Amino acid sequence: MARCLTIAVCQTGPIQRSASRAETVGRLVHLLEKAAAFGAEIAVFPEMALTTFFPRWRIDDQAEIDTFFEASMPGPETQRLYDAAARLKVGFALGYCELAHEDGRTRHFNTMDLVGPDGAFIGRYRKMHVPGSSEPEEGTTTHLERRYFEPGNLGFPVYNYRGVRVGLAICNDRRWPETYRMLCLNGAEVALLGYNTPLLLDEAPALAHLRMFHNHLPMQAGAYQNTLWIGAAAKAGLEDGQALIGGSCIIAPTGEIAAQTMSLDDEVIVHRADLDLIETCRKVNFNFALYRRPDQYKRISDPV
Ligand code: CDT
């Protein structure tokens, strides 16, 4: 019998700043219930799924900034989602802003947690590739992630989810080949990721028509070259005046898009991922043990 994992991608529409955590968590619970009704065994929510994408603003008051962060996970407002996972027996990956106390100081990470079908914490990933700047820059869309977040310090961990090896990634990570390669080398069969991607960038109006192409291109290539299933969830639509792309999808290790959202709103897509397809794709082209030559990759040619 084929080894399968039924993956749900739970795209959300915009989460306005005015929305309470309780209201937002209620939406996520509703999406998880839909995913369960569709037969999902695991679900992925977007990056920063509990709040608006606040790095679009420059905020100076640390107390105000910290209102976007979770000091504990689950916390009083998010516990309901974990209870829903246990009730529905569907685990999830959830992006949120993490306030951590490590090495004797307070730290801020853009984080995604993996939670099991019993509602228990499995593992954590902290966004490695933090884009944008720490101050607004003339002529560019304000994207101040580097003001508010440290780059991740947990590598690209891969976790056991009901016997399936699952890795995590967050938004800009999906544009970097290292993300998929490291997840693959660490044994991942499935990569779950969430994103908040502005539709328009002031610095590159000439590339505006390529936003969706450049969303899917690296994920399809990453899935194909690393024989991974990918589930990618957008936060989409007009959020606090800024348009975010949708295009949430489930991608096969063949590089094909197996399912894709059709709205910029709360929407669930589901696909029964055949994990044996990974082995088939490895046999066709990507037998790493036989063909990769990592010992040779670092050789530097003589200067010409
Ligand atoms: N959230 C996130 O990482 N967004 C980036 C946009 C960066 S624009 C400076 C992305 O790659 O989609």
From TrEMBL:
GO MF annotation, one: hydrolase activity, acting on carbon-nitrogen (but not peptide) bonds, in linear amides
ATP-binding listed as a keyword: no
KW Transcription (keyword) present: no
Keywords: Hydrolase
Residue ranges of every copy of the CN hydrolase domain listed in the record: 5-277
PANTHER family the record matches: NITRILASE C965.09-RELATED (PTHR43674)
Protein name as catalogued: N-carbamoyl-D-amino-acid hydrolase
